Amino acid sequence: MIGGGTGGTLAANRLRHRLSPADEIVVFDADDRHLYQPGLLFVPFGLAPPARLVRSRAAQLRRGVEFRRTAVEQVDLDHDRVITADGGALPYDVLVVASGTRLALEATDGLTGPGWGKRVHTFYSLPGATSLAGALAAFEGGRLLVGMIDLPIKCPVAPLEFCFLADWFFRRKKMRSSIQLTYLTSLDAAFTKETCNRALSGLLERKGVELVTEFATGEVDGAQGRLTAYDDRETDFDLAVLAPLHEGASCVARSPGLGDALAFVPTQPTLQAKAKPNVFAIGDATDLRASKAGSVAHFEGEVLSHNVTRFLAGEEPDARFDGHTNCFIETGFDKALLIDFNDEIEPTLGHFPSPVGLPLLKESRLNHIGKLAFEQLYWRAILPGRDIPFIGASMPLADKHLEKAE
Q: What is the pLDDT of residues 312-353, one digit of tens each?
């Protein structure tokens, strides 16, 4: 298992439950710091202490799963072995790639140049979110630009959530009128899913957030406070909060035949990698259409553990992941939206996971409570690989107004 993040941890724990005690499960990662990534959104606004978001990776693994604290250098597909940065090599019968994504800050000209950490920030890392907390607290007014440079990124709705919380944050400080809040995206709309886009665009308008679409950022000038698009359009800012480009893990890039041009693993709906039948992938490491979000890794875990078990038994993997994704979208003032969709069905109205569940595509305090409660669910049920009653891998269809996705 390459990676001790969300996908790797829950997959290892699920497999430990399914497989024989004689089957060896090894998880590789370069450090022992497991980060609760959904909490990063709250750090800049003083709503989550950074230290609370980090726990030991090894401590999240079931007894009988071995954790090796070492980086992976590459995968040798021809000889079915993992080569580690310390010069070691471990053969495998099945490999699960759960290496996640990395922030490719160097891919955008000037992003980490003059102004980085002062006028230009990101909340997509713990140091970045912590630094941004100080910048927001000291911000006295002007144009606050929140931008998504391009997809794919982890949790595509997070930059929108940041806008909604920034609106709440500055209203609470009674200085919202001195803040010009702008959301900038390379997409042609606020969000990729049309039904969800209508709701989110309406929220941006009601909260007085300017929307700038089809702005493909090519260069960041932090010293002058300016973004330049590839088509030479420019936009100014006093403070910028950017979601940088994401790429797959470096070890995937260094493994011939495993990854694509962005170092993501081409993956089938069975979660088998296209490179080789005994290689599987989960979570952000895959090239699947599904959003790079924690819920996706959770739903994939059931499919992956089933199919790996069948593969090791000499049987054909028969479970398929349908792209099921759901996400709480914090909208400020103790309210949130909830969306639920898959590859074939758009985010819909209704309830999740049943007719008496949480309201979908509607702001509610209940959804906000659900988002806050998710942190304990994450540590106590999702990472341990436990089944959650009424919530399976496939998208539930009861009490939904179904609309096919394009």
A: 999 999 999 999 999 999 999 999 999 999 998 889 888 999
Helix (H, G, I), strand (E, B) or coil at 65: strand
- Of the pLDDT bands very low, low, confident and very high (cuts 50, 70, 90), residue 401 is low
Residue 10: closest CA among 341, 322, 299: 299
Does domain 105-246 fall under CATH 1.20.1250.20? My reply is no
The residue among 11, 2, 113, 51 whose CA lies nearest residue 393 is 11
Handedness of CA 107, 111, 116, 120 (dihedral sign): negative
- Would you call 191 helix, strand, or coil by DSSP? coil
Percent of the chain at pLDDT exceeding 90: 89
| Distance between CA atoms of residues 178 and 169, nearest Å | 13
Extract the tokens encoding 12.
């290892």
Mark 241-261 as b/e (b = at least 16 C-beta within 10 Å). Answer: bbbbbbbbbbbbbebeebbee
Residue 105: pLDDT band by 50, 70, 90 thresholds? very high
pLDDT at 406 over 60: no
Residue 149 CA to residue 112 CA, distance in Å, equals 14
Nearest in space to 227 (alpha carbons), one of 126, 170, 143, 158: 143
- Does the predicted TM-score (pTM) go above 0.90? yes
Q: Are 220 and 111 in contact (CB under 8 A)?
A: yes
Q: Is it true that the peptide bond before 353 is cis, omega within 30 degrees of 0? A: yes
| Residues 6 or more apart whose Cβ sits within 8 Å of residue 20 | none
3-class state of residue 146 by DSSP: strand
CATH assignment of 6-103+247-312, given 3.50.50.60, 3.30.479.30, 3.10.450.50, 3.20.20.70? 3.50.50.60
In this predicted model, what pLDDT tens digit does every residue of 119-150 receive, in sequence order? Answer: 999 999 999 999 999 999 999 999 999 999 99
